[in-house]
Design goal:
The structure holds 2 protein chains of 2 kinds. Chain A is mainly alpha-helical. In chain A, about 70% of the residues lie in helices and about 0% in strands. In chain A, helix 3 runs antiparallel to helix 4. Chain A starts with 8 loop residues before the first strand and ends in a 5-residue tail after the last helix. Helices cover about 25% and strands about 30% of the residues of chain B. In chain B, helix 2 packs across helix 3 and helix 4 crosses helix 5. The chains are: A mainly alpha, B alpha+beta. Chains A and B meet through helix 1, helix 4, helix 5, helix 6 and helix 7 of A and helix 1, helix 2, helix 3, helix 4 and strand 30 of B.
Chain lengths: ~190, ~625
């Protein structure tokens, strides 16, 4: 696999090498994780499903082909399709659980994201710019909660503040980011 | 259902969805919320898209967060504090419950209005910085009505080179002869003069280099030059251009002794005394030149009036000659005077216009010059500010031979000697909020030792750097005076120079005043930050201590670099400034509760102006 020639042609279709696979996965990890998380809300199995999806995709790498100039969008759709299957497997195993969405809802959410994967990609790009527009303090708050995975109560404890205050501050920053993304997409004519 | 009810239900539903999504995004949801969300998503495509966007937003933030460095938890605290005051009244009550200083919070808005008004007034009528420096001289120094030049000729003057002998004999005699001339050597804590300009070819007389890293002089300090030119500025307002070879002793804010060389002095207030080795005293007003050589002492008046008192010789001893503009006199070693025209006098360097002088960048203001005590239109060699009081030039330590930590008093100290420097402070040790500018902006800073070392200082680079003047083993750790070898080494690698901010100090600049000085808008604050931490004792485990640097604009954090030591190298600071920004604050804190060896420096710090707008074409004809 390691010696496989990158982007070798199969007619108009191109394939990926292992190194490109890893690189693409690193670039688009957030999008794939977003896909998995959206289907696994309320479950602690998100990480496991993400990993098993990546592993499955790697094993099937020879089957992946793309036709565009860049493999990015087709790659994300392909990995998400594999992840969709992995998630549904989990749902089948835990049919009785009431903490997860219905299989129909999961399928609907998955299809929407796969179908409009490119649009979600544009949002991810816009997000990167919007984060840079936040104040340094707002960025620090996000890093504390998301980067270090500190629960709100723990952040509040560390800075001697109320959980309510931390919650509201985070909610405000998220709201600003969503508005910024929408604004950016609108400027670029990509708004839905 | 009426249309109004339909609208209300839709609105409630949207609120429910948003509220629910936030809960999920922040992992604060319950099982009941999950059921509710599931129902909403099943019903509405809009809800499903909102949900998908919310989840992807969270994962995107998470992905970005994981590529970032250390989290500044104190920045978060400041964010919440800002939210408390400006956006969320409900949360303000929580702050009170948490025993945040109510009085300080309540005082904030009132202080803000008062100070803003006062500050704007000050921006227009900015007080000259020397006015303040002078104010602390007035108590101990008599001010003469005219410029006083005391010229005494030492009989053995031809034995040049034995500097210490010259000084001792010369000064001992004149101290006895001129009882009315005040030069209070006991007032050694005060800085009374400083070097403001220097040529790059300066060569110091061995053992007579300026001892102070910041080129300041206390009464009794001697400077000797074999080559080059320097300009001295006294806190009385007088200035001297000293031309080598020269030997000069600063004796007070209004007097000095010249034992060789040439000086051109200017004292608009006419209150300066210059002593030379001949036994003569000369009163001088405004601008004069004095040269001391083997043939005696030449005195020339360029403008105003000079009174020359003879202290040595046979005929004129004790007498006085008045010299007017254009007149000159030579006092020979026998104390005899010969008046002659200016054309026969030695050439005096009346202005400091050597091509080697540091050029001012028209597109930026160097913070080095502001800390150096001047406005944005002149370069300054060096300067320092006491971080506790805001006083300019006065050393913040008591014993010049021993370093001492200085504890803060938790107060922001507003300065009044330069309208562009708003004030200074030593951060509070207990992580409580603190005022950082005269507009009353409050921020939280991390817990620290509450003490700092030495002054906030600035030192411009010039070549060659006189080694002895900068580094003295006897003053190791003497931050900002004698200094450390790594500071000297780093100075040599700069474009403009260094600004020293030992851990646990803060300084705020008034951006409005900087704009007004050149009638231009500001675009950026730029600098490079490094920690030159190192212990003179190589085996000291604290040699690699770490510090934090934060930059606030109007109380909002715009830049931070945390827990960095000397091994972490340099980092660039780039803070974009808007037209509305008023105060820029740079704060250092010890990141480990110990301020020892936290030698934080800003390299080449500047406030950069927006590019100048081109003149309208119809006005270009006037240029």
């Amino acid at each position: 696999m390691e010696n496989r020639k990158s982007e070798s042609s199969k007619g108009h279709c191109k394939t990926l090498g292992a190194d490109q696979f890893v690189k693409l996965l690193l670039v688009h990890e957030s999008r794939v994780r977003g896909f998995v998380t959206s289907l696994m809300i309320g479950s602690s199995d998100g990480d496991d499903v993400f990993q098993s999806s990546c592993l499955a995709a790697f094993r099937k790498l020879e089957t992946f082909t793309y036709t565009g100039d860049s493999p990015d969008e087709e790659f994300v759709r392909w990995v998400c399709t594999i992840a969709r299957y992995e998630v549904l497997q989990i749902y089948r195993k835990r049919r009785t659980s009431r903490t997860l969405f219905s299989s129909e809802l999961v399928a609907e959410l998955a299809d929407m994201q796969i179908q409009y994967s490119e649009q979600l990609g544009s949002r991810a790009e816009a997000l990167a710019g919007c984060i840079q527009k936040l104040s340094s303090r707002e960025q620090q708050l996000l890093r504390l909660h998301y980067g270090q995975a500190l629960p709100i109560a723990e952040i509040a404890k560390r800075i001697n503040r109320t959980a309510n205050g931390v919650y509201k501050a985070l909610a405000r920053v998220r709201s600003r980011l969503l508005a910024c993304i929408q604004h950016k997409l609108k400027l670029e004519g990509l708004s839905s | 259902m009426t249309s109004n009810n339909q609208f209300k239900n839709q609105h409630d539903s949207a609120d429910d969805l948003e509220s629910l999504l936030t809960k999920f995004a922040l992992k604060e949801h319950s099982e009941a919320d999950l059921v509710k969300l599931s129902a909403l998503l099943s019903e509405s495509e809009h809800a499903r898209w909102s949900y998908i966007h919310a989840v992807h937003l969270g994962e995107g933030i998470k992905g970005w967060s994981q590529t970032q460095g250390v989290v500044d938890i104190w920045a978060v605290l400041n964010l919440l504090h800002e939210s408390d005051n400006l956006q969320d009244r409900e949360l303000a009550s929580h702050l009170e419950e948490l025993a945040v200083d109510d009085a300080r919070l309540a005082r904030g808005p009132r202080l803000s209005q008062q100070v803003r008004a006062a500050h704007r007034q000050r921006g227009v009528n900015g007080r000259n910085w020397w006015q303040t420096v002078r104010s602390w001289q007035k108590a101990g120094l008599a001010v003469a009505a005219t410029f006083l030049l005391a010229v005494s000729f030492w009989q053995g003057f031809r034995h040049e080179g034995d500097v210490s002998t010259i000084d001792e004999e010369f000064f001992a005699r004149n101290d006895a002869v001129i009882p009315n001339v005040e030069y209070t050597l006991s007032d050694s804590e005060n800085v009374v003069a400083r070097v403001t300009s220097i040529t790059s070819d300066v060569a110091w007389t061995h053992g007579r280099e300026p001892r102070d890293f910041l080129m300041r002089f206390r009464p009794g300090d001697v400077v000797g030059m074999e080559k080059g030119l320097l300009q001295l500025e006294f806190s009385s307002g007088a200035s001297l251009i000293v031309e080598s070879p020269a030997m000069l002793q600063v004796t007070s804010a209004t007097s000095a002794r010249l034992s060789r060389g040439r000086v051109v002095g200017r004292a608009d207030n006419g209150n300066f005394t210059l002593l030379t080795p001949t036994a003569n005293v000369v009163d001088i007003g405004t601008e004069f030149g004095v040269g001391v050589s083997n043939r005696g002492t030449d005195v020339t008046v360029f403008e105003g009036e000079v009174h020359v008192h003879s202290l040595l010789g046979r005929v004129e001893a004790g007498s006085m000659q008045r010299l007017q503009t254009g007149m000159s006199v030579l006092i020979n070693p026998q104390g005899l005077s010969n008046s002659h025209s200016v054309s026969h006098q030695p050439h005096f360097q009346r202005s400091f216009d050597r091509s080697t002088r540091i050029l001012l960048d028209e597109n930026s203001v160097s913070l080095l010059d502001l800390i150096g005590g001047h406005d944005s239109t002149h370069t300054q060699i060096a300067g320092s500010i006491d971080p506790k009081t805001g006083y300019w030039g006065r050393p913040p330590w008591m014993d010049p031979h021993r370093t001492k930590a200085q504890r803060g008093d938790t107060q922001f100290a507003q300065t009044d000697w330069n309208s562009m420097v708003d004030g200074v402070f030593i951060p509070r040790s207990n992580a409580r909020e603190m005022q950082i500018d005269s507009d009353g902006h409050m921020v939280y800073l991390p817990p620290n030792s509450g003490s700092t070392w030495g002054p906030i200082w600035a030192r411009r680079r010039f070549d060659p750097i006189p080694e002895q003047a900068l580094f003295s083993a006897a003053h190791q750790g003497y931050w900002g005076a004698g200094t450390l070898s790594q500071v000297v080494d780093r100075l040599q690698q700069t474009r403009d120079g260094l600004m020293g901010l030992h851990a646990n100090v803060g300084i705020t600049f008034n951006l409005d005043a900087v704009r007004e000085s050149r009638s231009r808008e500001l675009a950026y604050f730029k600098a490079i930050v490094a920690n030159l931490a190192s212990s003179p004792r190589g085996d000291d485990p604290k040699a690699n201590s770490v510090a934090d640097v934060r930059v606030f604009v109007d109380g909002k954090l715009r830049y931070s670099r945390l827990q960095f030591g000397s091994n972490d190298g340099d980092a660039s600071i780039l803070v974009e400034l808007t037209h509305e920004d008023r105060f820029l604050t740079v704060v250092t804190t010890d990141a480990d509760g110990d301020p020892l060896f936290d030698l934080v420096v800003l390299i080449d710090p500047v406030l950069e102006y927006e590019p100048a707008k081109p003149l309208p074409s119809h006005l270009e004809v006037f240029l």
